[in-house]
Automatic annotation (TrEMBL):
BAH domain ranges (all copies): 21-136
Compartments, as annotated in UniProt: Nucleus
Pfam families, per the entry: BAH, PHD
Superkingdom of source: Eukaryota
Protein name (record): Chromatin remodeling protein EBS-like
Spans through the membrane: none
One GO term of the biological process aspect: regulation of photoperiodism, flowering
Species for this entry: Capsicum annuum (Capsicum pepper)
Span of domain PHD-type: 138-189
A cellular component annotation (GO) from this entry: nucleus
Main location: nucleus
Length: 216
């Protein structure tokens, strides 16, 4: 028995209307929001399917922007950060307006230039509870915050930790001119080591939050 319903056909690719761009399963796409004032939604294409009248439907897995998450945007979230959610949906392929690239965090930090189509993802996100995977990430600097790739940091030659210039009482211009940098702990005689901490990412009451799905 065939698993597909009668009249439905899996497609290998879909051509975005009015462009020469081709979307295939596994690609990341920008989708037109119903409210045109909002930035486009970002999704990963799972499957493309045409019905008997050649209407193309796309099964997607949504990426959430930090402001769309239950915990909201935090100081360490990058401007181009996305969370890979557990929220799947079926949409008309007409809502696809472009393609984008969602990089791993490591690859994103190595990009020479960040183009409008470049995003990154370091967390998976549970849409119902607001929980993140991984749940804890490394922290840096005196302020003990996770790394935000949009913020300049300088590395201490002593402890190898990374620091925000502002947390060290420097301007960004001063930090850029530095050839050597020692943090205040390493430059003082007192060599008490700071504990290696991690940052708890998920909202503390994640299990108490009602399950809410975004309306599309
Ligand atoms: Zn800092
Ligand atoms: Zn140091």
């Amino acid at each position: 028995m065939a698993k597909t319903k009668p009249g439905k056909k899996d497609l290998d690719s879909y051509n975005i209307k009015g462009t020469n761009k081709v979307v295939r399963p596994g690609d990341c796409v920008l989708m037109r929001p119903s409210d045109s004032d909002k930035p486009p939604y970002v999704a990963k294409v799972e499957k493309l399917e045409a019905d008997h009248r050649n209407n193309v439907k796309v099964r997607v897995r949504w990426y959430y922007r930090p402001e769309e998450s239950i915990g909201g945007r935090r100081q360490f979230h990058g401007a181009k950060e996305l969370f890979l959610s557990d929220h799947f949906d079926v949409q008309s392929a007409h809502t696809i307006e472009g393609k984008c690239i969602v990089h791993s965090f490591k690859n994103y930090t190595k990009l020479e230039n960040v183009g409008p189509e470049d995003y990154f993802c370091r967390f998976e996100y549970k849409a119902a509870t607001g929980g993140f995977t991984p749940d804890r990430v490394a922290v840096y600097c005196k302020c003990e915050m996770p790394y935000n790739p949009d913020d300049l940091m300088v590395q201490c030659e002593g402890c190898k930790d990374w620091f925000h210039p502002s947390c060290m009482g420097m301007t960004i211009e001063e930090a850029k001119k530095l050839e050597h940098f020692l943090c205040s702990d390493c430059s003082s005689e007192d060599d008490t080591k700071r504990p290696l901490n991690s940052f708890h990412v998920s909202p503390p009451d994640e299990l108490k939050v009602d399950s809410k799905r975004r309306k599309r």
